[in-house]
Amino acid sequence: MGLFGGMSEEELRTSGTPTTARVVYVDDTGKRRANGTEARVKIQLKIDSGSARGRELDKAKWVPVTKMPHVGETVQIRFDSENVDDWAWGDPAMYEPARVSAQPAAPGGPPAPGSTVPGSTVPGSGDPMVEFIQHAAGPWGQMPGFKKMIETAMTANMQAMQSIDLSEFTGQGYPVQMPAGAGAAPSPSPSPSPGAEPAQGTAERLKRLDKLLEQGLVTAEEHRELRQKIIDSI
Prior knowledge:
The chain has a five-stranded antiparallel β-sheet with strand order 3-2-1-4-5, covered by helices on one side. It is built from five helices and five strands. The radius of gyration is 33 Å and the shape is rod-shaped. By secondary structure, the protein is α+β, with helices and mostly antiparallel strands. The chain has three domains: 9-94, CATH 2.40.50; 112-158, no CATH class; 164-232, no CATH class. Helix 2 (128-136) packs across helix 3 (146-162) and helix 4 runs antiparallel to helix 5. The protein has helices at residues 9-15, 128-136, 146-162, 199-214, 220-232; strands at residues 17-33, 38-47, 56-64, 74-80, 83-89.
């Protein structure tokens, strides 16, 4: 029972007469609770269906800030048939508990999504690439240590890219787009005069360029362009 003998809010939610009403007035009082996820608003409704059609209701209610009612919209309510002024929301979402914010992982536990794995530059389980590889690997991706193996390999590739001076493959400082975080591109080297480099040095550069392609550090298109630059520099 309510404070003055009517139906309580809980009883209204379960046993009240269901109907729809149109929002005609909303005033946010600025009051908040539940860590700011619920707001206190003064709201005026006009029942637009059922036996109480046309009846205006006026009351202050706590609502989730994500479900703040707006003037002109239609809402679900439940009212006391013996006292229409007593009403509750008919939409269960208006009573959803506040969402609990994510807590940091306990010491020694798994890293939180998007965190960085200690000792590496590769993000943890929040890295889309790592998640994609694990998903593509199927059951193998669920094996203990599989994610760590992926992260270690990716870290090694990043470090290898950072240590490569790509200008030595062209002799002209040909710009190659580096991955994010791989450091600044090497400074351009002056173009050598025709015939200044021995044929043996050219062959060695071509071999090392082929090796980069095999390791997946350059694309096939970049490989062709770099190879042509090397040949043109002879």
